[in-house]
Q: What sequence folds into this?
């Protein structure tokens, strides 16, 4: 597994990374989210050896990374990096060969990837003649062409249309299912929520939340939206009936309530029925965006030391 | 599925890409065509301007006795070639002049030409005519024609050449000087290509993708070698075509002494390029945008310009002591030594010293340039100072 262990990096007086640690397992798609300037790109560049950390290290299966291990990594930088005048297929083969893949294998891998990304017809076009979306697909192909075991992708989905997102997500998912470890950064939180097995939220160079989306939700998951055919004030009656219940939101017709951990959802439903006909009964799950906002909005003076939830 | 690449394999892959991509670029062909065009003009121009020596076709109307022999004799003395064309009468001769088949014809005491009589041919014809007429006058005055003929023949000046190789040396010097211009053009163009290539990789961030796979030094080495090879191929094409063209037109004879300067120039291109390309790459690695390129490569280009003007100085003052010094001191020797070698001025020890110093300088420059390149190439944004680039932490992985 890929371990980032207490990475720190400063640019002059600016702290880009402050004791950043997280782990990505094989067969896991890890979403890396944070505000602009939170340190996502710095962390990824350190993983790829493009940047040195001031302290801390990155390990793969317990071994500190070196050029030989990184050969098995695929990297998609945020600012896309391809030779504009090279032909698409030729470029992919070149990158694969730099990773040490033999010529024929490289050619076939490049063709297969272009087909999976619906770019076969553009294989002999120059990169610069492609649309930005297609260039981005080629960039992903460039990160995958040597069949890496670890993929580090900086904002791979930004600027893609929904079809592009789907075809890229499918390609990535296939790699993850085959045992690769993928970590990607994104601002599209609903996409991260949909695709990722685990999520890390970074703020000011420090990881403030780490785990599956369900884990991150924690107790906040125990909320329900109710609509009951009863006169106004039914929420008070409900709260009286169920000790520990809090009313989170009280609307005109419906309300959101949060249950204490000891109370089950059927108990709530029974209590609601006792008040009148139940028209709506929906578990309310906070989205990743909700979680992100609440986590990132916390005061910057975060407690020191590792506070992350380890994904075992 | 994959295995680690050795430094050499990585550099070879990079070099192949550089060579293969650039040779297909239109700009390469355009620059090649322009250079070849210049060569064609330089080689062809003397053919249209040089009337000093050459060969002439003349006709002698009425075949006056002795005139043909006299003309031949004078032609030999004047070192021009005169061939005779038989004509039946003056009309035919005139037509031949008009058509440009012959340069002139003699009819009695008149020379007829189309536009103007070339000075060499005039001298030959006038001397021959006055010789024949003088002999006839003396003969009619009762003097033995054989004695007259003997006296006149022995009255030509003999020329003794103290430096019989001068002509050849001059031709070789000319080739070398022209070669210096071409060499300078190649060095400055291809060093600039290296610099532009480095910045292109930085500005497009492709360098991050590449350096996640291979060491910075392999990328640098491959780039310099690939572009250098392309420059060498182009230079060989230029040199070869120049020689073939020149020999086909009779401007020079294709022989060992004429080919050597071209080979020398190729060798010195390799050395000069190694030095200047390393400097250019190191300079270019400090910046992230093509617009800043001029700014950082100016010192390197200035060095090349100084060499170039030095070559002019040496060409005009071949015997000056300073010329000898310039031709030995690197990196100036890269442009100046081939010039002196071709003219035959350089002693063997001078050539040896120049080579040793140049190779020594290259060894130092490559080490310095590689370190600066390595320290600067992954730093995006503002220009990286030389000090920072030098002090940059080395990559643990390489």
A:
């Amino acid at each position: 597994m890929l371990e980032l262990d207490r990475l720190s990096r400063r640019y002059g007086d600016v702290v880009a990374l402050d004791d950043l640690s997280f782990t990505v397992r094989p067969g896991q798609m890890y979403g890396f989210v944070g505000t602009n300037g939170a340190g996502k790109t710095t962390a990824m560049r350190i993983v790829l050896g493009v940047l040195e950390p001031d302290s801390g290290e990155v390990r793969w299966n317990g071994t500190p990374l070196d050029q030989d291990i990184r050969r098995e990594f695929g990297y998609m930088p945020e600012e896309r990096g391809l030779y504009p005048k090279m032909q698409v297929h030729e470029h992919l083969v070149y990158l694969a060969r730099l990773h040490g893949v033999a010529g024929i294998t490289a050619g076939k891998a490049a063709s297969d990837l272009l087909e999976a990304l619906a770019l076969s017809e553009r294989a002999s076009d120059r990169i610069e003649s492609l649309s930005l979306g297609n260039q981005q697909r080629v960039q992903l192909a460039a990160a995958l062409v040597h069949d890496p075991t670890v993929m580090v992708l900086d904002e791979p989905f930004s600027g893609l249309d929904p079809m592009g997102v789907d075809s890229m997500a499918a390609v990535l998912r296939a790699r993850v299912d085959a045992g690769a470890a993928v970590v990607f950064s994104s601002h599209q939180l609903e996409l991260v929520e949909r695709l990722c097995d685990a999520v890390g939220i970074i703020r000011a160079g420090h990881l403030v939340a780490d785990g599956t989306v369900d884990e991150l939700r924690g107790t906040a998951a125990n909320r329900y939206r109710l609509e009951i055919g009863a006169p106004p004030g039914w929420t008070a009656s409900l709260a009286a009936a169920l000790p520990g219940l809090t009313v989170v939101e009280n609307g005109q017709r419906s309300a959101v309530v949060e249950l204490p951990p000891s109370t089950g959802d059927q108990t709530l439903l029974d209590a609601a029925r006792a008040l009148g006909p139940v028209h709506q009964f929906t578990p309310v799950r906070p989205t990743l965006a909700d979680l992100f906002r609440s986590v990132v909005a916390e005061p910057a003076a975060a407690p020191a030391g590792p506070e992350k939830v380890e994904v075992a | 599925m994959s295995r680690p690449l050795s430094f050499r394999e990585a550099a070879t892959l990079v070099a192949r890409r550089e060579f293969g991509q650039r040779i297909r670029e239109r700009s390469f062909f355009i620059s090649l065509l322009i250079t070849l065009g210049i060569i064609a003009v330089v080689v062809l121009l003397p053919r249209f301007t040089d009337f000093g020596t050459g060969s002439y076709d003349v006709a002698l109307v009425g075949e006056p006795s002795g005139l043909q022999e006299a003309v031949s004799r004078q032609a030999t003395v004047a070192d021009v070639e005169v061939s005779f064309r038989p004509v039946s009468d003056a009309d035919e001769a005139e037509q031949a002049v008009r058509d440009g088949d012959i340069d002139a014809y003699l009819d009695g005491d008149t020379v007829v030409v189309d536009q103007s009589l070339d000075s060499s041919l005039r001298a030959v014809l006038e001397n021959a005519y006055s010789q024949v007429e003088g002999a006839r006058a003396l003969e009619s005055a009762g003097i033995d024609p054989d004695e007259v003929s003997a006296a006149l023949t022995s009255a030509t000046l003999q020329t003794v050449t103290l430096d019989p190789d001068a002509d050849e040396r001059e031709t070789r010097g000319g080739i070398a000087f022209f070669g210096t211009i071409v060499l300078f053009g190649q060095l400055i163009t291809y060093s600039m290509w290296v610099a532009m290539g480095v910045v292109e990789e930085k500005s497009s961030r492709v360098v991050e993708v590449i350096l996640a796979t291979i060491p910075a030094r392999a990328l640098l080495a491959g780039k310099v070698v690939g572009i250098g090879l392309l420059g060498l191929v182009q230079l060989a094409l230029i040199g070869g075509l120049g020689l073939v063209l020149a020999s086909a037109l009779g401007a020079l004879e294709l022989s060992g002494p004429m080919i050597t300067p071209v080979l020398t120039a190729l060798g010195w291109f390799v050395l000069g390029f190694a030095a200047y390309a390393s400097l250019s790459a190191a300079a270019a690695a400090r910046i992230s945008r093509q617009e800043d390129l001029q700014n950082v490569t100016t010192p390197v280009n200035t060095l090349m310009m100084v060499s170039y003007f030095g070559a002019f100085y040496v060409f005009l003052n071949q015997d000056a002591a300073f010329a000898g010094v310039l031709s030995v001191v690197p990196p100036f020797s890269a442009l100046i030594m081939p010039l002196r070698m071709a003219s035959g001025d350089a002693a063997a020890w001078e050539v040896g010293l120049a080579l040793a110093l140049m190779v020594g300088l290259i060894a130092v420059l490559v080490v310095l340039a590689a370190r600066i390149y390595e320290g600067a190439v992954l730093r995006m944004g503002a220009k990286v100072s030389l000090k920072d680039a030098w002090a940059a932490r080395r990559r643990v992985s390489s």
